[in-house]
Amino acid sequence: MKLTIFCGSRFGQDQKYILLAETIGKYMAEKQIELVYGGSDSGIMGVFSRTILQNGGQVTGIYPVGLFSEELPKTDVTTFIPTETIDKRKELLFEKEEAVLVFPGGLGTLEEFSQLLSWMAISLVPEKPMGILDVHGYYSGLKELIRNFAREGFMAEKWLNHLYFSNDPFELIDQLCATEKQTKSMMQEIK
């Protein structure tokens, strides 16, 4: 399975995010889940890619060359895909994964999550499961906001069924894998 992780090019204020990214990276390598990510060697993105590679896993990095001066690309990954724009990077990130994990991050992480969900809603990309890692309530406000969108009629309620919130990374990844397998099986039955 290919899992895209939306996460930051910064480390955050607390060491727990680094440790959590390392733990998840080792689990992904062990389960043979390929990482598809934004291609940076900086911050949490770099922690994920280095940990997965160090543990024998596969990593696809998609990076907009020449866009960032303070963020460096990680080119020594299994597959490195350079792009000319950040929009092309997101387009490829959205196409190449089978599921998404949203790790605690900042504005870029939020923007990628929001754009993917809205693109799924208007059928620009196939529907896929999205797991939101709600460590210590990090995304509890987002969860309430999304529910409010549906409650107030500004988003179809069906999209809530594509979102899995959990503070347990292993449970969340296992849920994404199981849901992705069910989706693949249903698509094969349709064909």
What this model shows, in words?
With 191 residues, this protein is of the alpha/beta class. A 7-stranded parallel beta sheet has the order 4-3-2-1-5-6-7, with helices on both faces. 36% of the residues are buried.
Tags for this model:
17% strand, alpha/beta, seven-stranded parallel sheet, single chain, 7 strands, 46% helix, globular, 191 residues
Count of extended strands: 7
Poorly predicted regions are none
In one word, what is the shape? globular
- Average predicted confidence as pLDDT: 90
What radius of gyration results from the CA coordinates? 16 Å
- The topology string of helices and strands comes to EHEHEEHEHEHEH
- Class inferred from helices and paired strands: alpha/beta
Which percent range describes the beta-strand content? 15-25%
Helical amount: 40-55%
**What does the largest sheet look like?**
7 strands, parallel
Strand order of the largest sheet: 4-3-2-1-5-6-7
Termini gap: 21 Å
Give the helix tally. 6
List the helices and strands and how they pair.
Blueprint (H helix, E strand, L loop, with lengths): L1 E5 L8 H16 L3 E4 L5 H12 L4 E6 L14 E5 L2 H11 L2 E4 L4 H15 L8 E4 L6 H12 L11 E4 L2 H22 L1
Parallel strand pairs: 1-2, 1-5, 2-3, 3-4, 5-6, 6-7
Summarize the structure.
The protein has helices spanning 15-30, 43-54, 86-96, 107-121, 140-151, 169-190, and strands at residues 2-6, 34-37, 59-64, 79-83, 99-102, 130-133, 163-166.
